[in-house]
């Protein structure tokens, strides 16, 4: 059975230390459709790191990808949400073992 990572990409850090980072929000073992459904459930309630005080949230979808635009008082930020198949994890050898037995 495939394993799927539910991922958000967003601005992390403050001031000159701001970068674009990725974070795994969760995992789903099953079909891609099940993972996409779980992502669809998580996205509306997600609170991004920036801005601190959100004045407006706009959520957009393109297929299975979501874009959250968070408007703050000084500037706007955005987050991208996607489903990715988990193929390998150096700290979890069971993931590689599962993948090897599937092929």
Please give a structural write-up.
The protein is built from two helices and five strands, in the order ββαβββα. It has helices at 32-42, 93-102; strands at residues 3-12, 19-29, 56-62, 65-71, 76-85. A five-stranded antiparallel beta sheet has the order 2-1-5-4-3, with helices on one face. β4 (65-71) and β5 (76-85) form a beta hairpin. It starts with a strand and ends with a helix.
Fraction of residues in helix: 10-25%
Q: Mean pLDDT across all residues, rounded?
A: 89
Broad structural category: alpha+beta
What sequence of helices (H) and strands (E) makes up the elements? EEHEEEH
Summed up:
This protein is of the alpha+beta class. It is 20% helix and 44% strand.
Keywords, please?
20% helix; single chain; 103 residues
Draw up the topology in text:
Layout: E1 3-12, E2 19-29, H1 32-42, E3 56-62, E4 65-71, E5 76-85, H2 93-102
